Amino acid sequence: MPSLKVFLAALLLGASALAGAAVTGGDTERIRDLASVSGVRENQLIGYGVVVGLDGSGDATNQVQFTGQSVQSLLSQFGVTLPPGVTPQMKNVAAVMVTTSLPAYAQPGQQIDITVSSLGNARSLRGGTLLLTPLRGADGQIYAMAQGNLVVGGAGASAGGSKVAINHLLAGRVPGGATVERAVGNAALEAEYLHLELNTTDFSTARRMAEAINAAQKSPVAEPLDGRVVRVKMPAQGSRVQFIADIESLEVRLEAPPAKVIINARTGSVVINQSVRLGACAVAHGSLSVTVSSTPVVSQPNPLSTGGQTVVAEKADIRIQQGAGTLFNVAPSADLAEIVKSLNVLGASAQDLIGILQAIKAAGALKAELEII
């Protein structure tokens, strides 16, 4: 485990800039980065299709029966009929699911990217071609048609019972592989009010956003409804597109974010923001290491014995070593650089820091919300 000094070096690099931002009242961001226009969103599409042209790496149709049924249904559209009860045995075909997102205001004829993922037991989709596949929305209507050659970023090979693979072979993309057939209606530009939905609930940000809009328009057209939505009255005349574009470009000065310490217990990552405050406390940190070693021991029978056998046994040696737990005095601090400096004094690893921060929080010396993900 690397030293805490190495782990928190990145925090020290930005500490001065963060402290300066706190003095001036916080950073500024554009409204387009803080909120989105209500009703202007993407719509998820999904479809079931068949990929052909695989080099023997497709579904085993004797196990994945719906792949064979799909091929029979496809061939029947071209006048090819198989005898009843006959299932074609193929290796170059795979059943797939096709997914994509229909952008807001997408018009018929536009092309969008699609993702193709294996549904059966195919070994690879590399080199395959997706046949014409309808993509449906949540209402069951067809909004796009997909077809094209797959781009798979992985590669693999197998021989003699051994195989090797690089990246993932069972999912790929078709750039511009779907053509929009139906537009989704959107009345956001025709409404009397424009609703800006914040990405994160924050009453201070909603208030400052409304103030910035009113200052730019020189009239009280914006009003925060709650910590998530700001309502803006649309102009009766002029271009509403230009009006929304001007609002999205406005800069809003943000309040300091809530004090948080984010801990990823799986990776041992610890992130501290500039709003965290540290009270005075004393911390004792010691290390405990357990070493288990095994040595083979051979036991042979006596030279004159009969029926004896040589036996190989193992001798286990277990050692426990505990380091000295020195008591460190952590001074109170309101600056991120000082907090990092105080924690570096402990000399703890990132994994050990998780337990230390939890103990400091329990003692009431950590003035921040401790979130474990």
From TrEMBL:
Predominant cellular place of this UniProt entry's protein: other
Subcellular localization, as worded in the UniProt entry: Bacterial flagellum basal body
Signal peptide: 1-21
Alphabetized InterPro entries for the sequence: Flag_FlgI
Key words, A-Z: Bacterial flagellum, Cell projection, Cilium, Flagellum, Signal
Domain of life from the UniProt record: Bacteria
NCBIfam families: PRK05303.1 (NF003676)
Family the UniProt entry places it in: Belongs to the FlgI family.
Alphabetized HAMAP family for the sequence: FlgI
Function of the molecule: Assembles around the rod to form the L-ring and probably protects the motor/basal body from shearing forces during rotation.
Subunit structure: The basal body constitutes a major portion of the flagellar organelle and consists of four rings (L,P,S, and M) mounted on a central rod.
Official protein name in the record: Flagellar P-ring protein
Species this protein is from: Ramlibacter aquaticus
